[in-house]
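User: Show me a protein chain along with its predicted structure.
Assistant: Here is one chain, sequence first, then structure tokens.
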Amino acid sequence: MARSLAQDGQTPFTLGEANAYHWQGESGRLLPVSKVSRVPLAMLKGIDQVRDILLANTEQFARGHGANNALLWGARGMGKSSLVKAVHADIVSRTGFERLILVEIAREELESLPLLMRQISDKPARFIVFCDDLSFDSGETSYKSLKTILDGGLEGRPDNLLFYATSNRRHLMPRDMIENERSTAINPSEAVEEKVSLSDRFGLWLGFHNSDQENYLAMVSGYAEYYGLGIDAETLRARAIEWAATRGARSGRVAIQLVRTLAGEEGKAV
């Protein structure tokens, strides 16, 4: 259970120049990230609708207006975490917004969320707390700390904080776990309601689905153009189709892996 800063003898967080931090729950510290691994927003292809929704929501938040916590769920490799980082970078690069800071928190650190909340609640900036690959398995209780943040709890969620999460699971827990708890519980309907309803507390549900060939080829083409590859369109298409077939998937991750290979063949770094 998270304790107060005074109880732990910790020094309150001083906001530095960095626009991205990593939360270290055990020590109660925010560690600045000097270089975030991310791609430009314009490079993310095939996810236009969810991109526009998340961007608009984040812009509202960065202006001090109403905005929702967001759950980005769905297929692997389709750009969920890349989109969060790209939207943050895009807004930071423009004027007309309050200072926007991205704070990454590991799933294992969720129980320290109340402490993080107290660290940043009085700071002159807007904070997106971001948890990548969020899910819960049987016996875990850390989701209760997250519910406190999403619901507001007794202290109330700070006005300068939003929570963004990515997950491969729409309800943040595996289907077989849901069915197992329902079948073995004394009151099946209540057994999983608390965990399943966690996803309902996100104001935005943004679904990422497996890409069709057209979108996949658009991703490959966009990445190749961005990095200035010299391969012709017909050869690029053939290589892209072959590359996807060998991996049994079409996604942004598969596309960028191909482009890295092609760049290496041309003696370029990406």
